[in-house]
Amino acid sequence: MRSRRPFILLALAALLLGACATTSAATPPAGADAGVVLLVRTERHLQVALKTAADLRAAHPREVHVLVCGDAVTALRRGAPLEPALEAAKAQGTRVVACGLSLTDKQVDPAELSPHVDQVPNALVEAVHLQDRGFRSIEL
User: Could you tell me if 53 and 96 are in contact, meaning their C-beta atoms sit under 8 angstroms apart?
Assistant: First the structure.
C-alpha cells in the first residue's frame, strides 16, 4: 500500500501556494516585473506550456518560467521527444525548471536532464518566490 504522506504534503503545499497566489495577485510589490510562471504536472500540459510561453514572449516580451512537477519530469530527460522544444524554449528566453522532489519521486537522476532544463529543490517554493516578485501564476 502506498504511503499517503507525499500526497498530504503536496496538498498542504498547494493550499499554501493558493494562499500566496491570492495575496500576490491582490497586492503585487512595487516594480513587479509581471512575469508568468506556468506550473505543469503532465507531459501534455508541458507541451501546451511550452507553446504558451512562446506565444506570450512573442506577443509581449516578459520572463516566463515553466515549473515541471510530477510525471512530467520524465519528459525532461536528455534525448526525450520534447528535447527540441526544450531547446527552442531556452533559446527564446523561457526557463524550464524541474522539481527536485518530483525527480526523486519518479527516480529520475538529475544528470539525465536535458541541458536546457534547470533544477530547483522544490518547484512549489520556487513558484512562491516568483509570485513574491510579482509573477502571475497558472497551474495546468
Answer: no
Instruction: Per-residue pLDDT tens, the chain, 140 aa: give them.
Output: 455 554 444 443 443 444 434 333 444 444 445 799 999 999 999 999 999 999 999 998 889 999 999 999 999 999 999 999 999 999 999 999 999 999 999 999 999 999 999 999 999 999 999 999 999 999 98
The whole-model pTM stands at 0.77
Buried b (16+ CB within 10 A) or exposed e, 1-38: eeeeeeeeebeebeeebeebbeebeeebeeeeeebbbb
Q: Count Cβ atoms within 10 A of the Cβ of residue 131 and give its class: 0-12 exposed, 13-18 middle, 19 or more buried.
A: buried
113, 95, 51, 26: CA torsion to nearest 10: 130
Please, are residues 71 and 42 in contact by the beta-carbon 8 Å criterion? yes
